[in-house]
Amino acid sequence: MDDNFSKQTAKAGTWMYVAIFFAKFVDFFLLLVFARMLSPQDFAVMALGMVFVQLTEAVLELPIAQALIRVPKLERAMFDTAFTLSFLRAVFISGLLVLLAPVSASVLNDDRMTLLVMILAIGPAMRGLVSPKLEIYARKLDFRRHAVVEISGKLAALVIALSVAVYTRSYWALAVASITTPIVMAIVSYFQAPYRPRFSLREWRHFADMIGWNTASQIFTATSWQIDIVFLSRFVTPDVLGKFNIAQRLAATPMQIISIPIGRPFLAAFSALREKGALHGGYRKASSGIFMITAPIMALLAIMSEPLIAILFSEEWHGAAGYLSPLALIVLLIVFCDPMRALAMSLNKTRLIAANSALEVAIKVPLLYFSIKHYGVYGVILAQAISRVFSVGLCMFIVKHLIQFDFKDQIKAIYRPLVGLAALTFVAFAGRSFISYGDMVSLVITTGTIAALGLGAYIVSVWVTWRSAGRPDGLEKMAQDFALALAARVRNKTLRR
After folding, report:
1. Using one digit for the tens of pLDDT, what is the confidence trace for 214-262?
2. Averaged over 291-303, what is the pLDDT?
3. Which has the closest alpha carbon to 481: 82, 6, 86?
4. What's the chain look like in SS3?
5. CB 284 within 8 A of CB 363
6. Which of 50, 128, 209, 447 has the fewest CB atoms lying closer than 10 Å?
7. Average pLDDT score, the chain
8. What is the CA radius of gyration of the chain?
9. Which is nearest to 332 in space by CA: 424, 460, 461, 268?
10. Which pLDDT does position 365 carry in this prediction?
11. By the 8 A CB rule, do 307 and 443 touch?
């Protein structure tokens, strides 16, 4: 990946980072507010309601954006076909979930699920109805309009969901937050990328080859995510289920902030690099960069889970800390494999993504059946860990198969952040002995200081290792160039004065 193209991809990712960071900040803020206003049981109800919704959405997932990015030339007929497919999907999802709502209440043994699932069906139906012409800008690695759409949806959800929470003090605030965002995003998208809808399936062939395997992959991924909640609901109390749900959401947040916004720029970049024959170097930078950014955050979440939960949540949630620590480590395990999805899509090998997801589910489900009876929530976490280890192994094999990137080289690509993680872990564990839970102000200051020192140790270790390796191309070089340019700009402004 040449230096200019790396910077262009990074700039594109920055816009998406701004949008997703803001979106996740709103989600996190709402999570903290709701946790103070609602009970773990309310979160358990919402988690169960989302099981049927997310599984149905996964079954009917259509890779519209990916197909529009990948085709050589975009014409009116492509946009019409994309909109028609999205509209048909929205109608079908809504109708199917309305029919499944009473079934969900029966399966989950909770009458509240009927109305809840019907309302939640609005979310996935609207999520696919954004203007297809937004992808014109995605192809140019211009994600400013995507950022406006994302931020608008989250702002609306923030205002409306908080109002409902204050008024009802129930799980309906969570439901309203879930559906408001996609409704507003769909509306705003047509202002950012104007398009007059017209029904047509003339260019169906460009979408057909991606739908089958992509749908299979989404089904397996959603099953892997939701099967935990289904199993746990049979063996633990709603209070424990709500705490596990909070821990799972917290552990997933850093990865969602990083991997979701960079996914489209990676796909666009890999598609361009495929033509240049430069996928090997591009993937190495992508894998190393995403791991370098995410790893220290996940490590701190795992090590500092107890003080973090104590600071952010009321006392009734403190049991979630024991779940957050191992869940964060499981996410850390799979971080560097995340760009594999974009790589496989750029090469039209989505069946390999489906195979990877299928392996994880095939290993996880029987493990869940046996481990959850004996170990409860920790049995679920054990099943997750074992299935993810196998998934990472297959991911590395897929990358080797696609671009001849050896296992040794894949590990070597992340050795500098691994050195940094060792330094961070030493500092954080040493600092934990100074934490006292008696005074909240002291707890916040001590935890923040330990986290800052750990991150400092991580950055210094990565920097020293990078320099000793001969300053190779990568995220470190981009950071250095940015810092030097910023320093020069500040110096020039100072001299002018």
Report:
1. 666 777 777 777 788 888 888 888 888 889 988 988 898 887 777 666 6
2. 92
3. 6
4. CCHHHHHHHHHHHHHHHHHHHHHHHHHHHHHHHHHHHCCHHHHHHHHHHHHHHHHHHHHCCCCHHHHHHHCCCCCHHHHHHHHHHHHHHHHHHHHHHHHHHHHHHHHCCCCCHHHHHHHHCHHHHHHCCCCCCHHHHHHCCCCHHHHHHHHHHHHHHHHHHHHHHHHHCCCHHHHHHHHHHHHHHHHHHHHHCCCCCCCCCCCCHHHHHHHHHHHHHHHHHHHHHHHHHHHHHHHCCHHHHHHHHHHHHHHHHHHHHHHHHHHHHHHHHHHHHHHHCCHHHHHHHHHHHHHHHHHHHHHHHHHCHHHHHHHHCCHHHHHHHHHHHHHHHHHHHHHHHCCHHHHHHHCCCHHHHHHHHHHHHHHHHHHHHHHHHHHCHHHHHHHHHHHHHHHHHHHHHHHHHHHCCCHHHHHHCCHHHHHHHHHHHHHHHHHHCCCCCCCHHHHHHHHHHHHHHHHHHHHHHHHHHHHHCCCCCCHHHHHHHHHHHHHHHHHHHHHHC
5. no
6. 209
7. 82
8. 23
9. 424
10. 87
11. yes
For residue range 329-351, what is the model confidence (pLDDT) as tens digits? 998 888 888 888 888 877 878 78
pLDDT of residue 109: 75
Say which residue, 201 or 455, is predicted with more confidence.
Answer: 455
Burial code (b: 16+ CB inside 10 Å, e: under 16) for 67-84 equals bbbbeeebeeebbbbbbb
Per domain, the residue ranges of the chain are: 38-203
Segment 124-177, tens digit of pLDDT? 888 878 888 888 877 776 777 888 888 899 899 989 988 988 888 888 888 898
Which two three-digit tokens encode residue 279? 């996928």
- CA separation for the pair 152, 31 (Å, rounded): 19
